Amino acid sequence: MSDAAMLSKEERLAAHNAAIEAASKDPALSPETGRPVPKARLTRFGAGFLAFGFLWAIGLQIVASVLLPQHYKSIEGIDPEALLGIVNAATAVASLVSNLMFGNFSDRSRSRFGRRTPWIVFGAVLGGVTLFLTGTTTNPVLLTFWYCLCMFGLNCMIAPCVALLSDRIPSGIRGTMSAFYGAGTAVGSPIGVMFGAVFMSNMLAGFAVAGVFMFLGGVVAVLIFPREEPADYLPKDEGTVKDVLASFIPPKFSTAHDFYKAFAGRVCMLLSYQMITAYQLYIVQNYIGQSDEQSGVTISVMSTITMVVSLVGSVVAGPFSDLIGRRKAPVIVASVCFAIGIAMPWVMPTTMGMYLYAAIAGLGYGVYTSVDQALLVDVLPNKEEAGKDLGILNLATTLGQMLGPVIMSSVVLALGYVFAFPIAIAFALVGCVFIMLIKNVK
User: Fold this and answer.
1) What is the structure's pLDDT at 1?
2) 428: domain CATH number?
3) What is the Cα–Cα distance from 252 to 245, expressed in whole angstroms?
4) What is the pLDDT of residue 207?
5) Which residues contact 3 (CB under 8 A, 6 or more apart)?
6) Does 28 map to a domain?
């Protein structure tokens, strides 16, 4: 029996509060224990974040970037580009709700398995099953329903898992831990696109493989992470409807300026990212002018390029951010780099332009994902509500997923692809401005 298990609930609560207080004063101390974290334990956290981002990103991108856009073409009487925008908007609304909901619910959980672990496992099951079911129907309404449920499952994993950065990781190494997660998603996403291209001729099998990867993301991460301590000692509210509704209230703007600046910066960056990423298959086919077969090869090469440069950017940027003690500068540089990458196919509408986009924008996005999550944790106004507040900040990703394809679809249908690129560039640069305005984080 562990020492913690032998203490009373009151003693464990006092130790919990003391650990948070100690960690707020010393960036080398864990907010979970109030002590330095052994290297073996840190290795497990890093490996868990890496595996989590890697596996769910593969599963999602197999479907989102390749199979689903291709699947839309088999639905009679529907314009695939318009349907892409509609479905992405619907699923982003689902993500909007689920991110906040599951982050908040995990804050309020008092399970003997911890606050975060049960939700991560439940999300893995829900996300994996429904991602597969998305590919089993050509009914647009049913397809949208399954994909929305998949977003509930995915965010049921992501919101509590990201909250672990605040709960259990010392502030002085959050950039490095965020880099592991960013590296996982940065490498997993292009691998997912490559897998998707392989399964274009056997899409149902591809959807099944995607569901397995999504499921493994949450389950493998929980198995790798050091076991979460029971949360039964934490104080409970009365659990009334009023209490639950009140718990969803976001931080006051008057006392959380940096929180909302970080939110706005991420919205702009993800708008820019989703405008191009969600439509990259259509860009290659309709803007560059390649056939289905040619576009599959091009997407695979782009994915390989993106995987390599994103991995380099993620691995280098996170530890470098911890070393220099700064979050804002790497995020700003990454956003500018991404904007330059978007400009490549705009001024060079060729296969080479797409490859340059993959290289330059991929590097920028790799740096961005490795540091931005640590920046978001650093601007949290209340560590005890980390799940809810990170859920709110991660709504920025959802808004980007929702509005990016809608904006892209509207611009493409009205004006053509050539006008979409400068708009995406503008969003990335506006995001830089919001990050620069953050005051209490270097």
Assistant:
1) 43
2) 1.20.1250.20
3) 16
4) 95
5) none
6) no
